[in-house]
Amino acid sequence: MRADDITHPKPTIVLIHGLWLTPKSWKGWIDRYQRAGYNVIAPPWPGLSSDVEAVRHHPEVLKGLTIKKIVDHYERIIRVLERPPILMGHSFGGLIVQLLLDRGLGAAGVAIDSAQSAGVPVLPLSTIRSTIQILGNPFTFNSVVELSPEKFHYAFTNSLSDAEAKRVYENLAVPGPAHVLWEGALALLNPNASSKVNYRNDKRAPLLFIAGSADHLVPPSINRANVKKYQSSTAITDYREFPKRTHFIVGEPGWEEVADFALQWSEKNARAQVPFTDVEAAFDPDMTFTGSAAPIPPADLTA
After folding, report:
1. N or C terminus: fewer CB in 10 A for the chain?
2. pLDDT, tens only, 246-266
């Protein structure tokens, strides 16, 4: 370890998975970032196990899960860290990142193929086709529902062959709480829904949206509309679209390019790494700032 790594420690990276997946979907990213010297954590949603088979055998543990419960869960995890981490989320995990940043958490946030926050009324036909088996049946509102292999192939892995898509499904796909999907859908025209974000929040950490041009579940039009909602904020909001990438952008061939870009952008734009206590002190005139801000060193992704 270099002396510079001790005086200017690299921030923790928190990876947040999406609906119908577990932290196992981040395996490549975890290994890559750890080799670059980062502390990486990828906690599952509350009640969820990282063990795919365990979730498949006991999906009932996900019943009653809501967006707020998920965000509260990650907030508790983040607040025990010494310093604000870099937050990265995929799909509904990207929405969770948006909500956590709005709560004042994180040094930077990356929302990958992100479900839209409240009041973004964009619903492409491919999104409808990907979710119609759930949103077309009101009896699923409080259910735990799995995607069929065919629907998963269309929604997540549409660039892969049938055999490749089947392997991904068998290795990663799990049932998910339909209520979370319903919350997202019902928030399209309701800016005060549970996925509400203060789009004018100038104090939040920098936010990057990453989209895949071939994504069926969350096409780029959704992410671009979400980015536009933030245009009145002076906080950094960036957008990057990767060509020919699907909703399985975090695991399909070429995922390394996406992971490296997300990290490099985060390093460049992350807030200075000061302890949480000093961040809170900055908003409290009765408390004294005690730490010193340290620049974030560049990652060596060749390690």
Report:
1. N
2. 999 999 999 999 999 999 999
